[in-house]
Amino acid sequence: KQEVTQIPAALSVPEGENLVLNCSFTDSAIYNLQWFRQDPGKGLTSLLLIQSSQREQTSGRLNASLDKSSGRSTLYIAASQPGDSATYLCAVFQGGKLIFGQGTELSVKP
Amino acid sequence: SAVISQKPSRDICQRGTSLTIQCQVDSQVTMMFWYRQQPGQSLTLIATANQGSEATYESGFVIDKFPISRPNLTFSTLTVSNMSPEDSSIYLCSVEEGQGAGELFFGEGSRLTVL
Which residue of B has its CA nearest to A102? Predict the structure, then answer.
Protein backbone atom coordinates (compact mmCIF):
# COMPACT_ATOMS: atom_id res chain seq x y z
CA LYS A 1 0.00 0.00 0.00
CA GLN A 2 1.37 3.38 -1.04
CA GLU A 3 2.22 5.76 1.80
CA VAL A 4 3.25 9.36 1.31
CA THR A 5 5.13 11.18 4.06
CA GLN A 6 6.02 14.85 4.29
CA ILE A 7 8.71 16.31 6.49
CA PRO A 8 8.65 18.62 8.33
CA ALA A 9 5.02 18.87 9.43
CA ALA A 10 5.47 22.58 10.10
CA LEU A 11 8.13 25.13 9.24
CA SER A 12 8.61 28.76 10.18
CA VAL A 13 11.19 30.89 8.38
CA PRO A 14 12.01 34.59 8.07
CA GLU A 15 11.19 36.31 4.84
CA GLY A 16 13.83 35.97 2.12
CA GLU A 17 15.08 32.52 3.08
CA ASN A 18 15.35 29.69 0.61
CA LEU A 19 13.70 26.52 1.85
CA VAL A 20 13.13 22.88 0.98
CA LEU A 21 10.08 20.77 1.66
CA ASN A 22 10.45 17.00 1.56
CA CYS A 23 8.13 14.27 0.36
CA SER A 24 8.76 10.53 0.35
CA PHE A 25 6.69 7.63 -0.95
CA THR A 26 7.01 3.90 -0.34
CA ASP A 27 6.10 2.50 -3.77
CA SER A 28 8.10 3.87 -6.71
CA ALA A 29 5.59 2.65 -9.32
CA ILE A 30 3.93 6.05 -9.66
CA TYR A 31 2.52 7.74 -12.75
CA ASN A 32 3.40 11.24 -11.60
CA LEU A 33 3.80 13.45 -8.55
CA GLN A 34 2.03 16.74 -7.89
CA TRP A 35 2.70 19.53 -5.44
CA PHE A 36 -0.25 21.60 -4.22
CA ARG A 37 -0.75 24.63 -2.07
CA GLN A 38 -3.71 24.97 0.28
CA ASP A 39 -4.64 28.18 2.06
CA PRO A 40 -6.68 27.85 5.28
CA GLY A 41 -10.24 26.73 4.61
CA LYS A 42 -9.68 26.73 0.86
CA GLY A 43 -9.30 24.24 -1.94
CA LEU A 44 -6.04 23.11 -3.51
CA THR A 45 -3.99 25.00 -6.05
CA SER A 46 -1.77 22.89 -8.30
CA LEU A 47 1.82 24.15 -8.22
CA LEU A 48 3.89 21.65 -10.17
CA LEU A 49 3.38 18.30 -11.86
CA ILE A 50 6.33 15.97 -12.44
CA GLN A 51 5.80 12.98 -14.70
CA SER A 52 7.50 9.74 -13.64
CA SER A 53 9.99 10.08 -16.50
CA GLN A 54 11.03 13.60 -15.46
CA ARG A 55 13.57 14.71 -12.87
CA GLU A 56 12.38 18.22 -12.12
CA GLN A 57 9.96 21.00 -12.95
CA THR A 58 10.26 24.73 -12.38
CA SER A 59 7.73 27.51 -12.08
CA GLY A 60 8.93 30.94 -11.02
CA ARG A 61 10.49 30.68 -7.56
CA LEU A 62 9.44 27.04 -7.23
CA ASN A 63 11.47 24.02 -8.25
CA ALA A 64 10.35 20.45 -7.68
CA SER A 65 12.58 17.43 -8.11
CA LEU A 66 11.73 13.76 -8.34
CA ASP A 67 13.93 10.75 -7.62
CA LYS A 68 11.52 7.92 -8.31
CA SER A 69 13.94 5.11 -7.56
CA SER A 70 14.55 6.37 -4.03
CA GLY A 71 10.94 7.45 -3.52
CA ARG A 72 11.68 11.11 -2.87
CA SER A 73 10.64 14.53 -4.06
CA THR A 74 11.60 17.98 -2.87
CA LEU A 75 9.96 21.35 -3.36
CA TYR A 76 12.43 24.22 -3.30
CA ILE A 77 11.09 27.72 -2.68
CA ALA A 78 13.51 30.54 -3.38
CA ALA A 79 13.44 33.91 -1.64
CA SER A 80 10.38 33.10 0.46
CA GLN A 81 7.69 35.75 0.99
CA PRO A 82 4.91 36.10 3.59
CA GLY A 83 2.44 35.33 0.80
CA ASP A 84 3.98 31.86 0.53
CA SER A 85 2.50 31.00 3.93
CA ALA A 86 0.19 28.02 3.39
CA THR A 87 0.07 24.25 3.66
CA TYR A 88 1.99 22.44 0.91
CA LEU A 89 0.76 19.01 -0.08
CA CYS A 90 2.57 16.34 -2.05
CA ALA A 91 0.57 13.67 -3.86
CA VAL A 92 1.44 10.71 -6.08
CA PHE A 93 -0.79 9.45 -8.85
CA GLN A 94 -1.05 5.67 -8.78
CA GLY A 95 -3.78 3.19 -9.60
CA GLY A 96 -5.93 5.91 -11.11
CA LYS A 97 -5.98 8.16 -8.06
CA LEU A 98 -3.98 10.70 -6.11
CA ILE A 99 -2.58 9.66 -2.74
CA PHE A 100 -1.72 12.56 -0.49
CA GLY A 101 0.82 13.24 2.20
CA GLN A 102 -0.14 15.00 5.41
CA GLY A 103 1.29 18.31 4.26
CA THR A 104 3.85 20.83 5.51
CA GLU A 105 2.45 23.98 7.10
CA LEU A 106 4.74 26.85 6.11
CA SER A 107 4.83 30.21 7.85
CA VAL A 108 7.01 32.97 6.40
CA LYS A 109 7.53 35.80 8.88
CA PRO A 110 7.99 39.39 7.64
CA SER B 1 -6.91 24.60 -16.42
CA ALA B 2 -10.58 23.85 -15.86
CA VAL B 3 -12.61 26.13 -13.61
CA ILE B 4 -14.38 24.08 -10.95
CA SER B 5 -17.27 25.52 -8.96
CA GLN B 6 -18.72 23.91 -5.88
CA LYS B 7 -21.97 24.67 -4.07
CA PRO B 8 -22.49 25.23 -1.23
CA SER B 9 -19.16 26.69 -0.16
CA ARG B 10 -20.10 26.05 3.44
CA ASP B 11 -23.09 24.89 5.45
CA ILE B 12 -24.11 24.07 8.98
CA CYS B 13 -26.29 20.97 9.17
CA GLN B 14 -28.27 19.16 11.79
CA ARG B 15 -27.53 15.60 12.78
CA GLY B 16 -29.55 13.07 10.79
CA THR B 17 -30.11 15.27 7.75
CA SER B 18 -28.61 14.90 4.28
CA LEU B 19 -26.90 17.47 2.09
CA THR B 20 -26.07 17.42 -1.60
CA ILE B 21 -22.92 19.13 -2.87
CA GLN B 22 -22.75 20.19 -6.48
CA CYS B 23 -19.66 20.36 -8.67
CA GLN B 24 -19.75 22.18 -12.00
CA VAL B 25 -16.82 22.24 -14.45
CA ASP B 26 -16.47 24.69 -17.31
CA SER B 27 -15.23 22.01 -19.72
CA GLN B 28 -15.99 18.39 -20.43
CA VAL B 29 -13.94 15.97 -18.35
CA THR B 30 -13.99 12.22 -18.21
CA MET B 31 -12.86 11.62 -14.67
CA MET B 32 -14.15 13.41 -11.59
CA PHE B 33 -13.15 12.63 -8.04
CA TRP B 34 -14.64 13.41 -4.65
CA TYR B 35 -12.30 13.86 -1.68
CA ARG B 36 -12.85 14.43 2.00
CA GLN B 37 -10.57 16.44 4.27
CA GLN B 38 -11.34 16.03 7.94
CA PRO B 39 -10.18 18.77 10.34
CA GLY B 40 -6.39 18.87 10.55
CA GLN B 41 -6.04 15.95 8.15
CA SER B 42 -4.96 15.45 4.59
CA LEU B 43 -7.24 14.46 1.71
CA THR B 44 -8.85 11.04 1.38
CA LEU B 45 -10.49 9.86 -1.81
CA ILE B 46 -14.17 8.98 -1.40
CA ALA B 47 -14.97 7.85 -4.92
CA THR B 48 -14.26 8.23 -8.62
CA ALA B 49 -17.19 9.30 -10.77
CA ASN B 50 -17.13 8.66 -14.51
CA GLN B 51 -20.00 9.69 -16.73
CA GLY B 52 -22.23 6.85 -17.76
CA SER B 53 -21.11 4.39 -15.12
CA GLU B 54 -21.52 3.75 -11.43
CA ALA B 55 -19.14 5.56 -9.11
CA THR B 56 -16.26 3.54 -7.74
CA TYR B 57 -15.91 3.85 -3.97
CA GLU B 58 -12.75 3.56 -1.91
CA SER B 59 -12.45 1.28 1.06
CA GLY B 60 -14.38 2.68 3.99
CA PHE B 61 -16.90 4.60 1.88
CA VAL B 62 -20.25 3.22 0.75
CA ILE B 63 -22.88 4.31 -1.73
CA ASP B 64 -25.67 4.45 0.85
CA LYS B 65 -23.75 7.04 2.85
CA PHE B 66 -22.23 8.98 -0.07
CA PRO B 67 -24.43 8.59 -3.17
CA ILE B 68 -22.93 10.23 -6.25
CA SER B 69 -24.49 11.29 -9.52
CA ARG B 70 -22.65 12.04 -12.77
CA PRO B 71 -25.31 12.94 -15.33
CA ASN B 72 -22.95 14.50 -17.88
CA LEU B 73 -19.33 15.41 -18.56
CA THR B 74 -19.46 18.75 -16.72
CA PHE B 75 -21.44 18.06 -13.56
CA SER B 76 -21.53 15.80 -10.52
CA THR B 77 -23.15 15.72 -7.11
CA LEU B 78 -22.13 14.12 -3.83
CA THR B 79 -24.72 13.59 -1.12
CA VAL B 80 -23.69 13.13 2.50
CA SER B 81 -26.53 11.14 4.02
CA ASN B 82 -27.78 10.85 7.59
CA MET B 83 -25.04 13.15 8.81
CA SER B 84 -23.31 12.93 12.16
CA PRO B 85 -20.69 15.27 13.68
CA GLU B 86 -18.00 12.91 12.36
CA ASP B 87 -18.98 13.99 8.84
CA SER B 88 -17.85 17.54 9.54
CA SER B 89 -15.20 18.04 6.85
CA ILE B 90 -14.27 19.85 3.72
CA TYR B 91 -15.51 17.96 0.67
CA LEU B 92 -13.60 18.63 -2.54
CA CYS B 93 -14.40 17.92 -6.14
CA SER B 94 -11.49 17.25 -8.48
CA VAL B 95 -11.08 16.68 -12.20
CA GLU B 96 -8.29 15.21 -14.27
CA GLU B 97 -7.01 17.09 -17.26
CA GLY B 98 -4.40 16.37 -19.87
CA GLN B 99 -5.71 13.24 -21.54
CA GLY B 100 -4.20 10.79 -19.14
CA ALA B 101 -1.37 12.99 -17.88
CA GLY B 102 -2.90 12.56 -14.48
CA GLU B 103 -2.86 16.23 -13.46
CA LEU B 104 -5.70 16.97 -11.08
CA PHE B 105 -7.36 20.28 -10.34
CA PHE B 106 -9.60 21.02 -7.40
CA GLY B 107 -12.59 23.13 -6.56
CA GLU B 108 -12.66 25.46 -3.57
CA GLY B 109 -14.33 22.83 -1.45
CA SER B 110 -17.53 22.65 0.58
CA ARG B 111 -17.04 23.02 4.32
CA LEU B 112 -19.72 21.14 6.24
CA THR B 113 -20.26 21.45 9.98
CA VAL B 114 -22.67 18.96 11.53
CA LEU B 115 -24.14 19.85 14.90
Answer: B42
Cis geometry, peptide bond prior to residue A14 (ω within 30 degrees of 0) = no
| Residue A8 phi, psi (nearest 5) | -80, 170
d(CA B97, CA B29): 7
Selected residues 34-53 of chain A with any CB under 8 Å from a CB in chain B: 34, 36, 41-46, 49, 51
Instruction: Calculate the alpha carbon distances from B22 to A4, A68, A95, B3, B6 in Å.
Output: 29, 36, 26, 14, 6
Residues B30-68 pLDDT 10s? 889 999 999 888 899 999 998 878 899 999 999 999 999
* Shortest Cα distance, chain A CAs vs residue B16, angstroms: 24
